[in-house]
Design brief:
The structure holds two protein chains of two kinds. Chain A is an alpha/beta fold. Chain A contains 17 helices and eleven strands. Chain B is built from three helices and three strands; from the N terminus they run H-H-E-E-H-E. Classes of the chains: A alpha/beta, B alpha+beta.
C-alpha cells in the first residue's frame, strides 16, 4: 500500500479545523496510547498516522501500515499475526506477522471498519494482552507495539448497528482524531492546489504556472468527494497536460466543471483575505452580494422555476419573490423562463416528429 | 435532439469557460450527433479538446437520452 499524500501536503492548510487537528497531534505526540483516526477516503489518514509515528518516541523504530481491507477473512489473520510452517496449505515456512514486524515501533491498522466480526475478537485479545500467537503456533509472543487505527466509517454507528464490537471500539478509541473532508475546509483548497501544482511542475522541471480565476472558482465550488487525493490527482493531470503555461479551464476535467456548476457559488471566496491586508468591509453589502449570488444560482439551476428555487434555498416561495425584487434579479427569471420554454417547445416539436420515441431509421443505420 | 437542448447542457459550464476567455460553440446538430467548436483561449490546446470532449459528451448523454455522437470540429 502506498501513501500518495505526503506529510508536507497534509500540513498544508490554515483552516481552523486543520489547525485544531495539528494542535491535538502535538499534544499527543509523547503518548503511547492507541489512536483512532476517522476520515473519509483521501483525507490523509495514513499521512496522519505516519506523522504521529514520526513525532513519537518510537520514530526510529519500524512503522508498519497495513490495510485491513486488502486481505480476505482467512488471509488477514496470517497477515497480522504470522504463521508457522505447515499451518495451512502453502505455508511452506515460518512467517512473522505485521504485529511482529512492528515490534518496538508502530502499527497502523487502516480500514479497521472492514475487519470481520470474527477477527475483531482476536484483535481485541491482542490489544488487551499485548501478546500474539502465530497461526498454527503454540508459542505466545509478547509484543511492544503502539497501535494506530484508521476508519472511513463512523465506528460508533457501526457499534449501534451491531457491525463492530463495542469492546474493541473502546479499546481503539482512546485518542480520537477526526480528519475533516475537504469540502468542509474549502479555504485550504487554494493553498493545497498551489502546493500540488508546484510539486508536479517541479517534477517536470518547470515553474508553477499562473492559475486563472475561473479555474480557482471551479476548484472552490467542486465538492471533492475524493478529498485531498482527488485534488492531487486533478493537479497532476493539469501538470501533465497544460501546454500554454497558464492553468485555464481547458486544462480541467469537464466532469469537475459540470459538478462544480451544480454547486452553489462559494461563500468563502468572498470572505476577507489574508490577515495582513486588513481593510474595512461593508457587511450589509457583502451579505446582499452573497444573497444575490445564491438566488441567482438557484434560479439558474432550476431554469427560472421559482418554486423549485425556493425549495433549493429552503425559503418560502413568497419570500423568494421579495428577495428577487430586492436584489434586482427579475430579469434573470424572465430570461431563464424564456430559454426554458424554448427548450420545452423544441422538445415537444421533437416529440411530434417521432411520436413513439423511436429514433429515425436513417440516423441509426447510417452513422 | 435540438440545438437548444445541446446549448442548455453547455450553458451549465459556459460561465466558467467565458470567465477564462473561451467558449464552446454549437456549430450543428444533426440527428443524434452534435458538432461543437472550442473558441477563444483554449482553442489551440490539444489537452483542452480531450478534457472538454469527454466531459461534454458524458453530460450530453446524461441529459439527452437519444444523444449519440459528439464531434469537435
Amino acid at each position: 500500500m502506498t501513501a500518495t499524500l505526503t506529510t508536507e501536503s497534509l500540513v498544508v492548510g490554515h483552516s481552523a479545523r486543520m489547525r485544531a487537528v495539528f494542535e491535538f497531534l502535538h499534544v499527543i505526540s509523547n503518548s503511547d496510547s492507541t489512536v483512532l483516526i476517522t476520515g473519509e477516503s483521501g483525507t490523509g489518514k495514513e499521512v496522519t498516522a505516519s506523522l504521529i509515528h514520526q513525532s513519537s518516541r518510537r520514530k526510529h523504530r519500524p512503522f508498519v501500515p497495513v490495510s485491513c481491507a486488502l486481505f480476505s477473512e482467512t488471509l488477514i489473520e496470517s497477515e497480522l499475526f504470522g504463521h508457522e510452517r505447515g499451518a495451512f496449505t502453502g505455508a511452506i515456512k515460518d512467517r512473522p506477522g505485521r504485529f511482529e514486524l512492528a515490534d518496538t515501533g508502530t502499527i497502523f491498522l487502516d480500514d479497521i471498519d472492514d475487519v470481520p466480526l470474527s477477527m475483531q475478537v482476536k484483535l481485541l485479545r491482542v490489544l488487551q494482552n499485548r501478546t500474539i500467537e502465530r497461526l498454527g503456533g503454540t508459542r505466545t509472543v509478547p509484543i511492544n507495539v503502539r497501535v494506530l487505527a484508521g476508519t472511513k466509517r463512523d465506528l460508533r454507528q457501526m457499534v449501534a448497528d451491531g457491525k463492530f464490537r463495542e469492546d474493541l471500539y473502546y479499546r481503539l478509541n482512546v485518542l480520537p482524531v477526526v480528519l475533516p473532508p475537504l469540502r468542509e475546509r474549502r479555504e485550504d483548497i487554494p493553498v493545497l492546489m498551489e502546493h500540488f501544482l508546484r510539486q508536479y511542475f517541479r517534477k517536470s522541471g518547470e515553474d508553477a504556472p499562473r492559475v486563472s480565476d475561473a479555474v480557482l472558482q471551479a476548484f472552490m465550488r467542486y465538492s471533492w468527494p475524493g478529498n485531498v487525493r482527488e485534488l492531487e490527482n486533478a493537479c497532476e493531470r493539469i501538470a501533465q497536460t497544460c501546454t500554454c503555461g497558464t492553468v485555464r479551464i481547458g486544462c480541467m476535467s469537464a466532469s469537475i466543471l459540470f459538478r462544480a456548476a451544480s454547486q452553489p457559488p462559494d461563500v468563502v471566496m468572498s470572505a476577507p483575505t489574508a490577515p495582513q491586508q486588513i481593510v474595512p468591509i461593508a457587511l450589509d453589502e457583502r451579505i446582499r452580494e452573497l444573497e444575490s449570488n445564491l438566488i441567482s444560482w438557484a434560479l439558474n439551476v432550476s431554469h427560472g422555476n421559482k418554486s423549485r428555487a425556493a425549495e433549493l434555498l429552503q425559503i418560502k416561495r413568497s419570500t423568494l419573490g421579495d428577495r428577487i425584487a430586492r436584489c434586482g434579479l427579475a430579469d434573470q427569471v424572465n430570461v431563464a423562463n424564456t430559454s426554458n420554454q424554448q427548450v420545452q417547445a423544441s422538445r415537444s416539436a421533437a416529440d411530434t416528429t417521432a411520436p413513439n420515441g423511436d429514433r429515425p431509421a436513417s440516423a441509426t443505420t447510417n452513422p | 435532439m435540438t440545438k437548444q437542448q445541446v446549448e442548455a447542457v453547455i450553458e451549465r459550464i459556459r460561465p466558467f469557460l467565458q470567465a477564462d476567455g473561451g467558449d464552446i460553440e454549437v456549430v450543428d446538430v444533426n440527428g443524434q450527433s452534435a458538432d461543437v467548436k472550442l473558441t477563444g483561449m483554449c482553442a489551440g490546446c490539444p489537452s483542452a479538446h480531450m478534457t472538454l470532449y469527454l466531459g461534454v459528451e458524458t453530460a450530453l448523454r446524461e441529459a439527452i437520452p437519444e444523444f449519440d455522437t459528439l464531434r469537435v470540429v
